Amino acid sequence: MPGVTPVLSWATYHGMDKVWNRIQEDDILRPFQSARILQMVEDLFLGADRIRSQDVRFLETLLKKLEKSNPTSFTVLALSQLLATIEANGLHKLEGASNDPWAPRRPSKPPRLNPVREILPEYYITSSSYTTEDVEKMLALAADWPSENAAVGFMLRAGMLDTAESVSAVAKLLEAVPPSAGRFLMVGAEPTDREGRPSVQKLVDRVGPGRLLVELPEWPRQGEGEGGPVRVPQPREDSGAAHRQLSTFLIVLLLSILFFTK
What we know:
alpha/beta, Purple Acid Phosphatase, chain A, domain 2, 2 domains, 5-stranded parallel beta sheet, 8 helices, 36% helix, elongated, disordered C terminus
């Protein structure tokens, strides 16, 4: 396929993937509801003021229904935490308490100076990384690509590049061929990943900036700016780890090939 550069990627398991996977396993929400909740969590991470009032009303109504039909589900736990976080930030007026005649009356408070930006932080996965075994499998896959189309890219997730071991493994993707081959690395992140541009610095120092494409936004993430996101204590719940890949990037004129890790 002339004019097309393949980009190979792994189905990663990092950040809030565990939360999304548990919600998917519950199989309670309809696709449009899941998409709307995901957007609210993304908006919360970027800034609570981005959340629309109509979305908050939607969340309140949905949560009331699920508390009756599926009160012990993880989905209800996650949505309850999302609603509590929105209420704690003080930027939106919630209708539920005002409609309850038995609810205690509390004086109004100004919005938080340091808003809460994430939910269920205890479920956030930080232990994932790229291994030498994973990279060797990817190199074997890249070797099967026709030699006349030697320019191959590899999609990486910023949060999995924080360790020297992970960077050393990933660097082999480029060290296997000379720079003239046109091979490159593309680094991105899911919208609710805490990690941002600082996580890529170790990889830049190792391979140089000339063979990297960084698809990371400019807004502050964990460790960028002052103090990072404020968190609130969350309830613990034992759960088995599973894996789910969120949607990543739409790459115009690039061929995306998924390669799953163990």
